[in-house]
Structure formats: structure tokens, C-alpha cells
Amino acid sequence: MTALLPLPVAIPLVVCAVLLATAHLLPGRVPDILALLAAVAVAILCAVIAVQAADRPLVYWFGGWEPHDGVYLGIGFSVDAASGWIASFIGLLYALTFVFAWGFFDRTHGHFHILMLLFLAAMVGFCFTRDMFNLFVWFEVMSVAAFALTAYHLAESSLAGAINFTVVNSLAGFLMLGGIGLIYAQTGTLDFDGIATAVAQGGRNPVVAGAFCLVAAALMIKGAIVPFQFWLADAHAVAPSPVSVIFSGSMVSLGLFGLAKVSAVVFGGSDQVQGALPVLLIGLGSATALLGGWMALLQRHLKRMLAFSTISHAGIMLTGLGALSIGGTGGMLVYVVGHGLVKGALFMIAGILLATQASIDEIALRGLGRGIWPAGIAMALAGLLLCGLPIGTLDQGTRLVQGALSQEGHGMALAATAIGAALTGAAVLRAAGRIFLGLGPDPGDEAGAPSADEREKANRPLWLMLAPCCALLAVDLALPAGPIAHALPRAVSAFMHRPEGGMLAEGPGWLPWFSVAAALAGAGYGLFRKRLPAFVVRPVRATQSAPTRALEILHSGLIGDYAAWLAVGVAVIAAVLAMA
Amino acid sequence: MSVLPYVVAAWLFGVGLYGIATSRNFIHLVGCLGVCQSATYVLLLGLGYRWGSIAPIFYDHPPGTPAVDPVMQALVLTDIVVGATLTALLLVLTVQAYKRGGSLDPEKLRPMRAGGNKGPDQGSRPVSDGGRQTP
Asked: Which residue of A has its CA nearest to B93?
């Protein structure tokens, strides 16, 4: 059974190599079909592995280099049920993205599929590995594939976005490698379990704290946590829509998945790290949730808006981690899946609008979506799910995260998760109302406001693009909550290498409804501001204009500013660790 | 182990980051990124170094001779490969950006700021952005 473990990584890599060698010979749609089959195979294999790993994690040592007497020489994959299911979800997301991208590019010579399959293999490897350096390698492979995919269109705006993305994430890679070097120097091994044993025996140690600081900063950069979040909006807004689906649906949350694994497994024995984690993760997570939500509300470029909404939801995931409990981490893992499904669907809708209406600007698109109303229904549903409509997998994750937060007494973070979700939901619902119902004031000349002259290929049938989007939403609604809740405590205790225990708490039942109500109110305010009486509008405008302007100046698009904020972020993490 | 490699690594990373933060030219910026990466080489080689030992090649040495840590050297090799990939990719992106934008200045090649329709900086956008403001 364990012999299956390398396959979900090997299959995409082999198909990738075959495509690279033969793509120029293959007729039209063969690369699409091969890529789709590879992604489906990965999803199925990972699900099989996850089922097998339900009792105890499966371990595979490459080349048979098993550890002897506590000495780890080989590199291994170790898959617990949670990691397996996350990898399976990623495979499913890729499969549906390949369907969405069917015929998306004219003459790709298979390059799009090759990069995507490389990306997929890296993500699965990232989920499965049990070796720090191997983790870094998958991190870098993931990054390089992502950089190339972002710049795929080679348009001016996508190039600038891709350069920012590349520079910031390369710095993340260097930080991570430095951290790995430090922890190896301290413990003499790169294996997760080996490091964990040595760290637990070592006591308080500045080298271990330094290593964690660097690795955590790198993973938070990938996870777009304040103050590392700047690259995300630039990259996600300009990448081709199918790529944005993958970025927001899985790449960002995988950064936090890695952080969850590393902080629970590798640094689980360090009291200093564990003492610093709640303050660090809850604080940064809450700030991220609020800032992302606020920025999302300010955007009129749909994909940029969705990108900021992803930042907000990444913050919510981080607060779940910060609860440091089985429930919090379990909620975060469920949230990763639910969020990936819903956000993937939303990016597909943005792609549909780009393809059929040749615009991505919310104001310019006002009322233009009436002809493709099924997409409007999907967008409204996704918006409601995003802000917390109490149904489906995303809601289950939200409840678990909020339950863990209220159990641990983090009231502020609880409020931040509810408000962040409401703000992003408001932004999506406002856009849906404006585009598909023609609500809101007539923009007049403003419709021609500055925006990149973007469009994506238009000659694909609507149903082909809409089907994967609806499938994602259907999966989010149809995943059975009961079995997930039943299997979760065990899976998470295996994931965190921690004894099982404690009940999974759910947050207050009214909180999701509060988020939905707030989102609807926010969307209504955005659409009908002109019709509201002045005593409502004026105080809102007066209080929000200054911070709004400050936030927009912060998101300058300048790589230099991003590098400076990166230094600030690393310093913050180091300071919190030093004080713990 | 002496503390010098740590200091040099931190200094290199800081200097590289400062260069990135203040850079007005993408080629210069790629160079600064390389400086940041050199910090990781120095750190890793410093961590793996043992005084008075040989390179980890035992072809003409009896097994058991003290050698520097080969794992660190493997990490550095991988790091160099990553660095080469990144530099090549970034330079390609820079060349393409220059072809389309006519500039290597990050200030002039900001990624699309279409979201910032309400921002006060809208009026002072660089001229090179004008080409994209097609209605």
C-alpha cells in the first residue's frame, strides 16, 4: 500500500515530461485530455491513500533508506488522512480547472498544461513530505511554476505583477532555506520527527526560535498574511483566470497548511515557539482578515477584489491555527477545502465575464451580465457562501474555527473572522448585484475608467465554462458534514502528532447569520448609496475616507515597498518570539 | 564555530534587501536579489564547515577522515540551481517588460492599479500608463 505514495507526485511529473517531449506532435486537444486525466488520477489516488491512512499515517522511504536507531538518513513521504484529503482536493480543483481552461489558449504547445502539472506535482509533494529540505524543494518548484504561469500572457500589467510576485516569493524561499540550515545545524537531521525529538529535548534555544522565525515568515509570505500580503493582489489580478483559480484555491492556503504542519509537528516541542504562536497567529490573522476584507470592498477590478478576499480568508485560517487546538486546526483544514471550492468558483465566474463581456471592471460591466444570468446565480450563491451562509463545507470550517476561538477565549479574533467574512461577502454580492441585475447608479462616463485592456478568449461555449464552476459549488454544498465531523478529531490528532482529546466545539449559531446580514447591508450600501439619506451616508464617508486613502497608498505596487514591509514582518515575528 | 558567518550572512541579506527596497532599475534589482541569496550560501556553508577537515570526497582519503558536512553542500548546490532558475526567469520577465513598457524603472511599471479608482494618486499616474487607459 505504501508503494502508492510517490505516485500522485510521479504521475503529473511523467505526464509533464511526456507532454514536453511530444506536445508539438500531438493533435489539438490531446494535451488537455492528458492533463485532465493526470489530475483526476491524482485526486483518486490521494483519496485512496487518505482512506488507507485513516488509522495511522502511511510512510514511504525513498530508496528504502529507513531510519535506524533514531538516525534519519533517507527522505520520506508521510501521509496522514488530513494531508491525503487536502491533496485529493487539490487534484479535484486541478481537474475542474483543466475543464474550465479547455481551449483557453490557442497555441500553447502544451506549455500551460506542462506548467500546471508541475505545479500540481509540487503541491502534492508539499503535502506529503516529511523532510524539511524536501519541503523547501517543493516550495520552490511550486513558486517557479507559479511565476511562469502568472506571466503567461506576457502583457505589460501581468509582467509587472509577475515580477513583484517572483521577487517577494524568492525572498521567502531564501528565508526558508536559512531557517532550514539553522534547524539542521542545531538538530543534525532534516526529518520532521527527528527534528521534533531533538527540539523537544533541547529546551529554550535561540537558534531554534530563529529557525522558526525564518521558516514561519516564508510560509506566511506564501500565505499572504499581513504585512506580507502585497504580492498576492498584484499576481492574482493579472494571472490568467484558470491560474488564479489554483492560486487562490490552493496555493495560498497551502502556505498556511505548511505552517500548520511545521509549527505543530516540527516545533511542537519548543515551549518558546508554542508560547509565541497564539499572540502571533491570532494577531496577524485578525489584522489580515480585516485588512483584506476592507481592501476587497474598495476594488472595482473583479479579480483584484477576489484576490483581497482571499487575503481576508487566509487571515481567518490563520486565526484558526492560532487557537492551537485540535478543533482550531481541524476547522482550518476544513476551511481550506471549503474556501478553495468557493473561491475557485468565483474566479471562474470572473473568467467567464472576461471571456464573454471582455471586461473585468465592475462599473463598466454594470447590467451587462443579464445575458448570462446562470453565472449571476452562481456568483450570488458563492458570495453568500463566502460570507457565511450556514450550509456547506466552508460554513463547517468557519463554525469549527469560530468554536475553537470562542473556546480559547479569543473574542477579538472571533469578531475579526465574522467581520472579515462579511466584508468580502459584501464586495462579491455588490459586484453580483451590479453586474447581473444592473443595480446601482449609472456610471456614465466613469465606465471608461482606467483599467488594463484585458480580455480572454471568447469562443468557448458558456456551459463549458460554467459547468466546472457549478461543480465546485455543488461539491462545497454536497460534502457530507457528518462524516467529516466524525473523522476530523482523529485525522487532526494524526496531523498534529498529538493525542486525541477534547470535543470539537462549534461557534455561536447566530454568528454566520450576522456575517450574512452585514454582507447584505454592506452590498446594499455600496449599490444604493446615492438614494440613502445624508445622515446615514455622511458619517460613513467621513470615517472611512482617511483610512481608505492610507490603505490605498500602502498598496503602492512598488516592489521596494514590499521588500521593506517584508523586513518589518520578519522583525515582528522575531520580536514576538523573543518576548515569549 | 565562529560567529563571523552569521554576521556576514545577516549583513548580506540586509544589504540585498535594502538594495531591492531602493532599486530604480529591474536589472539592478535582480542583482540585489542575488546578493540576498548569497547570504544563504554563506550561512549554509558556514554551518556545515568543520575546521581542519577535508571536502566530503573520500576517493583518495581513507573513510573516517573528518570531512565537512556533505548535507549542507548538497543544500547549497540545490540553492544555486534555484538561484539560476530565478535569475533567468526574472531577467526574461524584465526583458519582456522593457519591450512592452519601454522602461526598467519599477515606478513606471507598476502592476495594474485599476482598483484604485478612488485614489488621489490617480491624477499623478506616470505617463507610460496612459497607453492602457483605453475606454
From this structure: A159
- Written as nine digits, the cell of A532 is 440613502
Residue in B with minimal Cα distance to A230: B111
Q: How far is CA A294 from CA A318, A521, A543, B98, in A?
A: 18, 15, 13, 34
- pLDDT tens-place string over residues A376-435: 999 999 999 999 899 999 999 999 999 999 998 899 999 999 999 999 999 999 999 999
Q: Which long-range contacts (CB under 8 A, 24 or more apart) does A197-201 make?
A: A197/A70, A197/A269, A199/A266, A199/A267, A199/A268, A199/A269, A199/A270, A200/A268, A200/A269, A200/A270, A201/A269
Residues 514-553 of A with CB under 8 A from B: 548-549, 552-553
List of chain B residues whose C-beta atoms are within 8 Å of the C-beta of residue A564 = 21
ipTM of the complex: 0.88
Inter-chain CB proximity A167 and B90 less than 8 Å: yes
Rounded to 5°, angle at Cα A560 from A559 and A565: 95
Q: What is the DSSP string of A265-299?
A: IISTT-HHHHHHHHHHHHHHHHHHHHHHHHHHHH-
Residue of A nearest to B41 (CA): A178
Query: By the CB < 8 Å criterion, does B105 face chain A?
Result: no
Task: Check: CB of residue A101 under 8 Å from CB of residue A112.
Answer: yes
